Amino acid sequence: MSIIQESKVDPLLDGFFTTPEVVRLMKKSRSVVTGWLDGYYNSQSGPIIERDFKGTHTISFLDLMEIRFIKYFRGQGVSMQTLRKASEKAREQWGVTHPLAMSDEKYLTDRKNIFAQIAEQEDDEITYNLVTGQHEMWVIIEKYIAKDIVFDPSEYHAKSWKPLPNVCPDVIIDPRIAFGRATVENYRVPTSVLFSQYKAEKKNMDIVADWFNVPVEAVETSIRYELELST
Description:
By secondary structure, the protein is mainly alpha-helical. Helices cover 50% and strands 5% of the residues.
């Protein structure tokens, strides 16, 4: 596979997320999320993710997409060691920072092969069976978790994500809009802002819609999204 040259984009387009925001989005504990990002305290093993904003508490959009990948495959029984070593190998082979935030047929296949190699080396039977089992299960799962993400057609990296497609299909996280805050599609006001104003206005959606020049439906969707994340 040829090495991909990642473009150098304006850092302001990378999205800015705090750990509590990512914990809320992923519905995982803070210790788990920080372990994936920075390595676990008193552990010799390092992080799985190579962060964009090193030396800070800021998490980028592509960091977030890799956290999403890790969360899903940890749920499938893939070990931390396998994830860590496979990520390192993919970064080295592909010349990219975020190999778990990429999607394209060739990358799915190559990533599958990398995980199979690492699982065999690590004697990770669960991952090896998942990767090499019948019906291309690994690729099916990868495509399933990628279905709510839009990928850049030139670099194959994730560029936007719908976090709650079944509940709020119009809510999108796009690092180019509002620094990555969730918004309702076609409106650039963060759902958190609309929700906060809704509470401040004693739950009057019409006033909020008029104040921010958005439809009442956008306010309603924002409320539903914010409440869903809080459960």
